[in-house]
User: Fold this.
Amino acid sequence: MAIIPQLELFSWEDIEPLGDLERLRLVLEHLPDEALMAHLEKSRGHGRDDYPVRAMWNSMLAGIVFQHPSIESLRRELSRNGQLRSICGLRAVPSAAAYTRFLRSLMEHGSWIESMFDELVKALSEELPEFGRRLAMDSKAIASWASRPSKEKKEDGRRDLDAAYGVKTYRGTREDGSTWEKVVRWFGYKLHLVVDAQHELPVAYTVTKGSRSDVKEGHVLLDELEKRHPEMLKKAEVLTADRGYDDSKLLSRCWDEYGIKPVIDTRRLWKDGEQTRLLPGHTNVVYDERGAVYCYCPETGARQQMSNGGFEKDRGTLKKVCPAKAYGITCQGREQCPVAGGVRVPLAVDRRIFTPIARESYKWAKEYRYRTAVERVNSRLDVSFGFERHTIRGLAKMRLRCGLALCVMLAMALGRVREKQQERMRSLVRSVS
Assistant:
């Protein structure tokens, strides 16, 4: 818990319940930063202490809570807001050079920020019994507004030498059946997130260059969860993600290693014109790339989609029921049909397509809707934490800034929960009246 200065002319009781200062109070009171502060103060030694470590740290947190896009913007706020300076513990506004040195020190202690993030995740898991049961994974593009590197790649104060070009393709189908495609390109970074889909709060993150593959970093995120929060992987039941994470190894790993049911959309990877494939061991049963299974009537050759009969965990198979039996439709060849009693589809037929929750089922569609939780977290990062328009340059500084923003988000949520304000847990900014 942060140390908040108790000043003669200031009382937390005087602040607005939904104001910016109230959110700052939540962060300062519930952020587990004691170890980091003690370490930074010890590292400073017995040198000049014009701007105490705790005061500098508090002012940095205030800059995030109050959505200041730059250090200069924060310094201007501190210059005109004596109450904020008092809350932070500052007697004077720190110089730009002081903030540069402090940021450099924080970047050198990035692992402490990660540990603070982990402590907050653990605390929320203890406060919220359902926290971590439903997980969602996605990446967020963070464009760099700095100049692109020149061929010489010389540092000149304007360029971002760590950023890289990223591409993300979105595809869909219109109501008339036609397909659409949107390609987004940017120069910058990627924030890779796993969030609790029910409470819309982050539980794991990494920051990479914009060119990093979502699938490869998806495995890294699972590694991070296994290392830092193994208890959450044991609790998790479902992991949702968009088709950027459509990978048989990732899907298999979720279920085989952790018992998590993957709900991940599929990409179109089959050859052009290949609509279905024959189910091994059968002559009249086929499946498509979306996981739908069809049977052909041996008498008329008519094709019908088979009904879902559930997942058999012990067998590792999906049950498919004869459509005549499930829907009551007429089938002239039912008596001689080899799959009239249904069919079992082993997940091993194609681990990318067949998953414990059948893709064409209502349950799969219901679970997939939870994926939007990541999009809402990403939106809050843009709107409430200024990532839509920022001046951050360099991978180390981007990792620090993302880590701090996510810690503030979690600390604010933890404060709401502990103070019995769970309905306002996602309230990061002042509502506009």
Summary: Residues 130-147+159-265+362-393 form a domain with the Nucleotidyltransferase; domain 5 fold (CATH 3.30.420).
